[in-house]
Amino acid sequence: MSQTTTGLVQLISNALCHLRTSTNWNADHSQDNCVLNYTNDKSTTRDGAEAWCASILNTDQYIVAGCENPRTFVAVALQGRGDLDQWVTSYKIRYSLDNVTWSEYRNGAAIQGCADRNTVNTHYFDTPIRARSIAIHPLSWNTHISLRCEFYTKPVLTAFTQVGQVNSGNNTPMLSGSGDRNVVVPVTFPVEFSKVPDIALNLQYIDCTADSNNQVRVKVDPKNITTKGFDAVFATWSDSKAYRLIADYSATVLE
Amino acid sequence: MSQSLNGLVTLLANAQCHLRTSTNWDGNHTQANSVLNYQNSKDARFDGSEAWCASVVDANQFIIAGCEIPRTFVAISIQGRGDADQWVTSYKIRYTLDNVTWSDYRNGAAIQGSTDRNTVVTHFFDSPIRARSVAIHPLTWSGHVSLRFELYTQPALSTFTQIGHVQSDTNGALNAGTGAREVVVPVTFPVTFSKVPEVSLTFDLIDATADESKQVRVEVEARNVTSKSFECVFKTWWHSKVYLLKADWTASINE
């Protein structure tokens, strides 16, 4: 089954990660030029290499991509230098989720790299890697340690949550009578959400009276939910009564 | 009591922060070479300095490390330049949590820095600093304003939360009979979690009949929780009965 990078996030292209290298040939051969398919005017003397190029040629060189939020890394793509015959022929991958302990992908085994300047060589990880930081360690190369690269991750959702409490009060329409009775208590979020949130609104205090059939009926619902707030609707129905209800809400946006 | 860096995150080494400097001597003397113990060929004319080096030598220079996610900064290490006799002999620290208001650590008092090229001088903050951005401001130096450094933070956790709603059947198995009775409703999370979440499951509607002893018994429980789903189990027991229960769930992970 062939895999695809369609729908995945390109980390370097989207400026979503910080890049650190072991060494750079000089400022014009840095990680600034390492994104896949990077091309400039091909005059290295002025605007630099079409690749990250290390300054020391040994197997201690690496480029680290770091994200502050954990990501699910699906694939890595490698390419040679665009303006000279230099490329990495094999490499290994290391990664860390907690940024304290680092792990070796495939126990440090070599992954096949490039054989020319421009062909993109994409490696799909055996299973997606959950990490914050990930590093390419070149193991063998043609002429020089130079590469362009990209990391592909699943899209990330960020959660923003606010929690609060709302009280029906006592002496409300729920206290007497019969049929559908409710009391509406407006709630304003401490901070306005960037879009309409999902709300969990649940009872943490119930003081109610069962009717002549021993039937207890209480509920609370959020209505008219906007980015700024909602109405907490406390209710009872039929012949039941409620003296006081208190609810907690948890509102979350994923984007 | 001696303090330890064990278990802390090394921010620069893990590419977890963005770095901005007041000035750089040139493109080969930048923050890209500023991580603790940074080494290259030792020929600075070729691949740059083993340090960040400012271009203006006065007490207005600084290097800022910025993270999008707030972190608890425990310590800072400072080191001289590896390929020339230049080091910062004292510095102060400034920091901000909201990236609007900046604060002076120890009211701007000088912290002892380096006295040679390579000895690592570590300062543990009086109490850990909660911040998104932290800046080193060199106050005195030998030779030049040049340094290598590292910032140590407690590991950061990211929260991912989803919310949903679930209900029992109406007038179902819970509304007849006696003894322990339950209704199982499978729930699939909109987005699969990266690991098994904690699930909070609470009522927002209770329509129940007390038994002959006026006993109301209702329970809802999350069972068989996986990263993709869980079972919502509504229960009653003994002689109580339940016409309808509705619940909201909140599922959350920290990683």
How would you characterize the overall build of this protein?
The complex is a heterodimer of chains A (255) and B (255). Chain A has one helix at residues 44-47, and strands spanning 9-10, 18-21, 52-53, 63-79, 87-96, 103-104, 111-112, 121-142, 146-153, 159-167, 181-188, 198-209, 215-223, 229-236, 241-254. With 255 residues, chain A is an all-beta fold. Chain A has two domains: 9-153, Galactose-binding domain-like (Jelly Rolls, Sandwich); 159-254, Immunoglobulin-like. In chain A, strands 1, 2, 3, 4, 5, 6, 7, 8 and 9 form a nine-stranded antiparallel β-sheet that branches. The longest helix of chain A has 4 residues, at 44-47. The two termini of chain A are 31 Å apart. Chain B has two domains: 9-153, Sandwich (Jelly Rolls), CATH 2.60.120; 159-254, Immunoglobulin-like (Sandwich), CATH 2.60.40.2080. Chain B has one helix and 15 strands. In chain B, the strands form three sheets. In chain B, strands 1, 2, 3, 4, 5, 6, 7, 8 and 9 form a nine-stranded antiparallel β-sheet that branches. In chain B, strand 13 (219-223) and strand 14 (229-236) form a beta hairpin. The interface between A and B is large, with 57 and 59 residues. Strand 13 of chain A pairs antiparallel with strand 12 of chain B.
